[in-house]
Amino acid sequence: xxxxxxxxxxAHRDLLFTVAYEMLGSxxxxxxxxxxxxxxxxxxxxxxxxxxxxxxxxxxxxxxLNRLRTMKRRRESYVGPWLPEPMLTTPxxxxxxxxxxxxxxxxxxxxxxxxxxxxAVFVLREVFDIDYExxxxxxxxxxxxxxxxxxxxxxxxxxxxxxxxxxxxxxxxSVQAFQRALESGDPQGLLDVLAPHVVLMSDGGGIxxxxxxxxxxxxxxxxxxxxxxxxxxxxxxxETILINGHLALALSLDGVLDGIMAFHVEGDxxxxxxxxxxxxxxxxxxxETPLALR
Length: 294
Description:
Helices cover about 55% and strands about 15% of the residues. With about 290 residues, the protein is an alpha+beta fold. A 6-stranded mixed beta sheet has the order 2-1-6-5-4-3. Strand 4 and strand 5 (about 255-265) form a beta hairpin. It is elongated and about 65 Å long.
């Protein structure tokens, strides 16, 4: 293994991880994909590689596609709603509007509705601005076919894309209002910050208690939250952290992390709550994960 091969892989590692995570919604699986990419990279004849970054992205995409097809089957037996694995991100991710929007829980759930190939094409083209010829080589299709897939995926996403993007200060105000109401057990405070059509999704993975179906409507969501906190045995605390480039709450019980609650905010109301309690998905919130688009 040459120093050049190692240095090149390390230089593009954050990009490759971001590509894999965007395609899979799972940091653990993205790390596995990077390991598989590395094993194939060190066996490659680099003298025959004209564009090393493109070659690495191609390997990562192919490995992600293979894993995504396996994950689709695995999720069919998942207990309750499946949510993306939350990651503690660096402040620069939140400052990069395009990256933060694409990394949001709400957007990641939209990507879940695409087929594996559609998701790969959409992510590579719309998120990472990779040209069609390169994408075609990565997914094993012709450039004209990739253009058709990209058009179909873009139309699908636009129909389901979370609508408004609010300023960081607006989002912070809504999340902090929610936090105050949660900590004080104030149902009216929750109702004041929740949109009438708010949707709460909770992911316990069959390990932790969670709603097996989405909870829809401000009154039902407020009742679900206050009912859940009222049954807590121990001291519940929460703090704001940056998850996937957006302000979120880390909920702890007697000082031990119990779950991550992410939000989608429109105007000055919360329209989406994503509560991840599955402990197997909470391993990437202890330290920041660097991400990259280029």
